[in-house]
Amino acid sequence: MYRSMVLICFSLVVFTGLQGRNIPSPCSRMTGVFNVRDYGATGDGRHLDSRAINRAIAACSKAGGGVVEFPPGIYLSGSIHLASHIRLYIGSGATILGAPAAMKAYDIAEPFSGKAYQDGGHTYFHNSLIWGEGLTDVSITGMGTINGGGLTRNDKDVGQGPVGNGDKAIALKSCRNVLIRDITILHGGHFAMLLTGCDLVTIDNVTIDTNRDGVDLDCCSNTMVSNCRINSPNDDGLCIKSSYALQKKIPTQNLMITNCEISGFKEGTLVDGSRQSAHNGYATGGRIKFGSESNGGFSNCTISNCTFTHCLGLALEEVDGGIMEGISISNLTMQDISRYPIYITLGSRNRGPSGITQGIMRNISISDVIGTEMDSVSGIQVTGMPGDDIEGLSLRNIRFSFKGGGTAAEAVRKFPELGSGYPAPSWLGPTPSWGIFVRHVKGLTLSGLSLSTDKPDLRPILIFSDVEDADINRLKAPVQSGIQAGIFRKTSGLTIENSPELKFSR
After folding, report:
1. Could you tell me the residue ranges of all domains in the chain?
2. For 45, how many CA atoms within 13 A lie in the half-sphere containing its CB?
3. pTM (two decimals)
4. Residue 410 pLDDT level (bands cut at 50, 70, 90)
C-alpha cells in the first residue's frame, strides 16, 4: 500500500506539472508541508510571488497548521502574512527578496489611534516584508536568506507616506511562542527584526547584516537570544526597548542574551567574509543597547558571553520614566570600539503621556569585560540625574585599553547634564576623565579595574561628582606627571583600597 501511495502521489505531481496548473500537491497535504511552488510561486526573482506565498500560508492555516516551505529559488515578494501554528521554512538555496517600492507590493501601514510617542518604525507593523499580529506558535526557520531588497531604511517613507514602501524585514506584534532560527537576513530596512509585546520568544543562530537596526525587542517577556551574529554599521545591533507603542507601559522582562557577536562593518561584508571598515570618517554603529525608548522599564535581564567588534559598546539608557533593575551582564570582549565601551545613563526625556515620573535605575552588575582599541571620547560613563541617583551599581573585573590622546582642555571642560536630551555620548562631547566618569550615583562598587592608554592622556583617570557610598578596590591605571589621577567632588562614604594611583587624589 505504501508503494502504491507513493506512485499515486508521483503520478499526480507529474500530471499537474505537465498541465502547468498551480494545484497543491496531494503529497504536500498528506505530510503537512505546503510548498509555495505548488501555489503558484515561481522563485525566479522576477515575478512577484507574494500572492502565491500567502495562498500557501492560508491553506496551511486552514488545515490546522504545518510547514510552508520555500525550496531553492529567489522569491520576489511584497508583504507576507504569517498565521498561527505555521512554520515558515526557508530552505538552503532559497531567498525571499523584498520587492522594490515601485511595485507597491507592501501592505499599507495600519491606523494608529491617538498620539504616537514613538517613531514610525515602532508605530506600524503591516508595512513589512513578513509580519504577524496576535499569533500563537509561529516560527521562521531554515538555512535560507531574507534579503530586504527594496525595503526603505527611513521610517518617514512609511506610515502616512507613500503607499508601497516597507521598512522591516520581520515584524511581529503581540505574538506568543515564537521561534526564529538559522536564517540569514541581509539589508533589513529600518528593522531587520522587530518584536513588540511578544512572549516566549527564541531567536537562535541567526545572522543579520543590515543597514539599520538588527534586532529590536520591545515590551517582550520570556525571551532568549543566542548564538547570533548581528552586523549593523548605521544603527543599533541588538536593541532592547519598552516603548509606548502598545499604548500602555509594558516592561521588557525575563530576557537572556548569550553567545552573540555584534559588529559594525560595512553592510554586506559580514556575510561575504571581507569585514570592511565602515568608519568613513565617522564612528560606526552596532551595539547592545537598553533604550532609548523605556516607558515600561526593564527587569530580570542577563547578557553573557558576547563579542563587540568595530562598533559601539554597551549602553543602558533609562530616560522615559520606567524602572530599570535586576540587570546582570558578564563575560564580554570588545575590540575597536567607537565613542564609548560602557554607557549607563538616567535621563528625563519622558517621552509619553503627561504625568510621567522620573525613571529609576538600580541593582545593575557588569563584570568580566575585556576591551582593546577603545575610542578616547569617553571611558566608562555613568550618569544619573541631580536628585535622582543611579543606585546599586557594580563594575568588576574590567580590563580596557584606550587609544588615549585626551587634552588638558578636555580635562577642565564643564561636562553637561543629560537632562531631557537624547542619550548619546557623542552629543555631550568628550568626558573630562579618560577612564571612568561617575555622577549622581549612590552605592557604587568598582573592583578589579585595569585601565591603560596606547598614548598619553592628559585627563584624570577618574572623576566622581555627587557620589555616595562608593568602594574602589584594585584599580590600576597609568598616572601622567602633573595630572591628578582621581578627582572626587561632593563625594561621601568613599573607600579606596589597593589602588596606589589614587593615593594622593582628592
Report:
1. 33-213+237-259, 313-506
2. 10
3. 0.92
4. very high
